[in-house]
Design brief:
Elements: E1 32-41, E2 44-54, E3 59-63, H1 70-78, E4 85-90, E5 93-94, H2 100-105, E6 108-111, H3 123-130, H4 139-143, H5 150-166, H6 182-194, E7 200-204, H7 212-225, E8 230-234, H8 238-244, E9 247-252, E10 255-260, H9 262-267, H10 269-285
Parallel strand pairs: 3-8, 3-9, 6-7, 7-8
Antiparallel strand pairs: 1-2, 1-4, 4-5, 9-10
């Protein structure tokens, strides 16, 4: 693959560099930031000095060819993977080393590539699990009859129903997820992430398995969220990313190669080279 071009939005090497749209000292207005994060798995370097920032009420997209490090970066952001070096900040607070449930308690919600729904729970019960941080006693504690009042139960049910209604799936509240079409289960999974009223929502491949029409509806949903939260979107469907994101960070081989607005990123020579290389590899290997 040819080296990165020297245009205004290309990020040569790794980490925030001259010409980056992220200042070396970081943006004080950012609500969430990842700074100089590196991750190794054995002898493989998955991420090298990756930095990005999410501004209030912004949709930030993270894209890259297969094997670029997108999933690893998402897992770092969610607390599933602890970086070897670097830091994560949430409204100025250090997050590095916190576990996923601790991040949820701070107002960071997430959806995963796999839906993660409980097959033997109803749709309503699945969404109530996500409301845990608003309850004086957790949902799972209540399953064992510990520590939650009928008033808490009523409040959680109301909150969960409102989240389902907001995504147009309240009519499925008492159905089991396994009985529903995949796009509906996708909305249930999103409702579970939204019921906690996060200030930052991390979305991992939310468009996987959706038709073009369903993807367009998803794009409208994501844009509609920005009146009350920020969104970090990790996605390989370029049409969705280009239509909903305010800014985009591009990874290749675990490094940031470009960042900027959709039009800037679309024209960036380093991005074009990375994706053309990925297409050539796909044609050769069929993977």
């Amino acid at each position: 693959m040819s080296g990165p071009a020297t245009g205004p939005e290309t990020v040569p090497g790794s980490g925030p560099a001259a010409g980056s749209s992220v200042p070396p000292g970081g943006d004080p207005a950012a609500v969430f930031s990842i700074t100089d994060v590196s991750v190794r798995f054995g002898g493989v370097r998955a991420l090298t000095e990756v930095s990005l920032e999410v501004a209030p009420r912004q949709v930030l997209g993270v894209i890259g060819p297969n094997g670029a490090g997108k999933t690893t970066l998402f897992n770092v952001a969610c607390g599933f993977v602890r970086p070897d070096t670097g830091s994560l900040l949430w409204k100025g607070r250090e997050l590095t080393g916190l576990r996923p449930h601790q991040l949820a308690g701070l107002g960071i919600g997430r959806t995963l590539q796999g839906l993660g729904l409980f097959d033997r729970m109803t749709v309503l019960e699945n969404v109530m699990v996500g409301a845990d941080r608003h309850a004086r006693a957790g949902f799972f504690s209540a399953l064992f009859g510990v520590g939650r009042s009928s008033r808490d139960d009523a409040a959680l049910v109301e909150r969960a129903r409102a989240a389902l209604a907001g995504l147009g799936v309240e009519q499925y509240a008492h159905r089991l997820p396994t009985s529903l079409p995949y796009p509906i289960r996708k909305r249930v999974s999103l409702a579970r992430a939204l019921v906690s009223e996060p200030e930052l929502l991390l979305l991992d491949e939310p468009a996987s398995g959706l038709s073009n029409d369903e993807m367009a509806e998803l794009g409208e949903l994501i844009r509609g969220l920005t009146d009350r939260m920020s969104v970090m979107l990790v996605e390989h469907h370029m049409d969705l990313v280009m239509s909903v994101c305010d800014d985009i960070t591009v990874l290749d081989f675990g490094r940031v190669i470009a960042r900027g607005g959709p039009d800037e990123v679309r024209r960036d020579p380093a991005v074009v080279a990375a994706y053309l290389g990925d297409e050539v590899d796909h044609e050769r290997t069929g993977n």
